[in-house]
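Write out this protein's structure.
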Amino acid sequence: MDKPTRCLTLPIITTQKTEWSSFGDEDGVITLSYPRYSDEVKEWIDKFYSLDIADNNYTANMKKIQSKPINTLTTDQTLTRLTAIVRGEKFCEGNIAEALESGELEELCRHLHETAQKQEG
């Protein structure tokens, strides 16, 4: 399966509010709050990685496109932004939650489908 076709199989994840765990201090162990993602979000993340569409050079590539509007991005640039969001969640600090709640993740998924369809067709 070529890359545009793989991109089209990535579900469009819709905007949603993320539940956060509460901050705790029990028996001298401090627990910081972290996002609790729904099964839908967890499945989306797994699918993103399993499709082998992540941009392995996303840190360098993000510098070139971070100020570009989503509707001007190519398929590869959209994948760069998606990779930065997903891989930015290294320490459960809510990078994906922020992109979900703002609607950015949904917008990027929709745009990915549009550009991939044009490439495929």
